[in-house]
Design a protein that fits this description.
By secondary structure, this protein is of the alpha/beta class. The chain has a single domain, classed as Maf protein (Alpha-Beta Complex), CATH 3.90.950.10. Helix content is about 30%, strand content about 25%. The chain is built from 6 helices and 7 strands; from the N terminus they run βαβαββαββαβαα. Strands 1, 2, 3, 4, 5, 6 and 7 form a 7-stranded mixed β-sheet that branches. α3 crosses α4. The longest helix has 18 residues.
């Protein structure tokens, strides 16, 4: 049996894991996220990796079988990577740019599988899986009032691109192409598939301490 560690403090990622009935623990990572990389797919993979590795380091002495999952999400629009807005003006600027246009959401995921060397598993030791998922999102043309009202709701401030598709901003989404959960910040279907390839069904790991 594996113990799953979610290397994130994101309430959205935690909620998705809970919705899927998977047992896990949250251990937020504390890393410098200032990585210089203009390619959004490489950026999110790099950030997810440093998060997973930082948390994995805290479990170096554990003798259990572990799955440590790190993730990072950015919005990419017209050659610019959009992270979380710094303030109200920054949120308004981001949403003005996304209004009436199409953008991409990238989430990078890093999974560290650590098998106890004293265990009877076929493969012992540690291995990593790193990937990214892209979803294309179309936003309706927003008025100045709609943008300001949304920003003043407080919802955008801890969200990449200054919006939450699962929140009040969902009413402004015209269309998405790809994984909805990827836009939320956690492509759980791809995570499930990647672990199945390694012979691990995380649906069999029932709810524990979250």
């Amino acid at each position: 049996m594996y113990r799953i560690i979610l290397a994130s403090g994101s309430p959205r990622r935690k909620e998705i894991m809970n919705q899927m009935g998977i047992g896990f623990e949250t251990v937020p990572s504390y890393v410098n996220e200032d990585i210089k990389e203009s390619d959004p797919s490489k950026l999110v993979e790099a950030l997810a990796s440093v998060k997973a590795k930082e948390v994995a380091g805290r479990f170096a002495d554990e003798r259990e079988n572990l799955i440590i999952i790190g993730a990072d999400t950015v919005v990419y629009h017209k050659g610019q990577v959009l992270g979380k807005p710094k303030d109200r003006d920054d949120a308004i600027r981001m949403l003005n740019g996304l209004s009436g246009d199409i953008h991409d959401v990238y989430t990078g995921v890093a999974i560290i599988i650590r098998r106890n060397k004293s265990d009877n598993a076929d493969i012992n030791g540690e291995e990593s899986i790193v990937f990214n998922v892209r979803t294309r999102v179309s936003v309706k043309l927003l008025s100045k009032e709609e943008i300001e009202d949304y920003v003043d709701s407080g919802e955008p401030y801890d969200k990449a691109g200054a919006y939450a598709i699962q929140g009040e901003f969902g009413i402004y989404i015209k269309e998405i192409q790809g994984d909805y959960y990827n836009v939320v910040g956690f492509p759980i279907a791809r995570i499930y598939e990647e672990l199945l390839k390694k012979g691990i069904n995380i649906k069999k790991i029932k709810k524990g301490i979250a």
